[in-house]
């Protein structure tokens, strides 16, 4: 969700240049800056600590939620649409508060099938320098929750990022003895080739805050754990990528199909369910707003009134189906 740092940068004027070439080089080398490397105790860590499970045929899906914050309508969405939620009573209180605050979750999904474990999107992460205050130097129990859910970070086979905004790749790495090291050291990290091309351009032009690339993506590449894949890459018979460009140029969703059941991990195609009845509402983060709108409309047309379930990274109640009837289009939770 690019909005978190885009609007903060616009307010502060921060760019990669702010950190200087020496800091950038340290980050690129995997050296953490701005932190002592000493982690607080597990008891002092805060976060959502919500673990939930579903089944899609033979594929087990587990959500490990890092956070679920109430944030103002703007700047995530245009202030011109701030009253629109009042038209849809089903949005309150699970997705929007009665006062119009958006409940924005950040969570990872772990897919298990045929002995393989795949982590989809790795949240914000701890100990990071970030432009948005509530995401800076976070100290959550996400990794402890990950383990308590039954997952050993060293037993993960693949890590898949739907795109490379900071709240989808953070736990790719962890801070260890002052350096950013892979959190899942035996996994192959799958990054979209088209997505990485976009971020290489951003790195070269130095027009945006790229701290998350330097501390959460570059160390994976340096460790030789990254694979760059096409936007329709098939991971296995049950799991493949589905192009869903717009939010970022290389954004993908993850399609799951097993024993006649289907689901899609939608990444940032949708940030809030209000975008089902009003797909024209874009987040401030969308790189190509017209394409983002088109992708949402295509998803609604393709999957509306079908048994296909959506697993939405930023939804407080993340799993449901698209219903389109006389009452309009809505997200019906499981």
Compact summary:
By secondary structure, the protein is of the alpha+beta class.
Order of helices and strands: HHEEEEHEEEEHHHEEEEEHEEE
Helicity range of the residues? Answer: 10-25%
N- to C-terminal separation? 24 Å
CATH superfamily: Ribonuclease Z/Hydroxyacylglutathione hydrolase-like
Secondary-structure content class: alpha+beta
What features would you describe in this structure?
With 334 residues, the protein is α+β, with helices and mostly antiparallel strands. Helices cover 19% and strands 28% of the residues. The chain is built from seven helices and 16 strands. It has helices at 3-12, 20-28, 142-148, 193-205, 211-216, 218-222, 289-303; strands at 50-56, 59-71, 102-113, 116-120, 158-160, 173-176, 179-182, 188-192, 226-229, 234-236, 239-243, 252-258, 261-265, 309-311, 319-325, 328-333. The strands form three sheets. The protein has a seven-stranded mixed beta sheet. Strands 10-11-12-13-14-15-16 form a seven-stranded mixed beta sheet, with no helix packed on it. Residues 1-31 and 33-44 have low confidence and may be disordered.
Summarize this structure as a short list of keywords or feature phrases:
Metallo-beta-lactamase, Chain A, 7-stranded mixed sheet, 16 strands, 19% helix
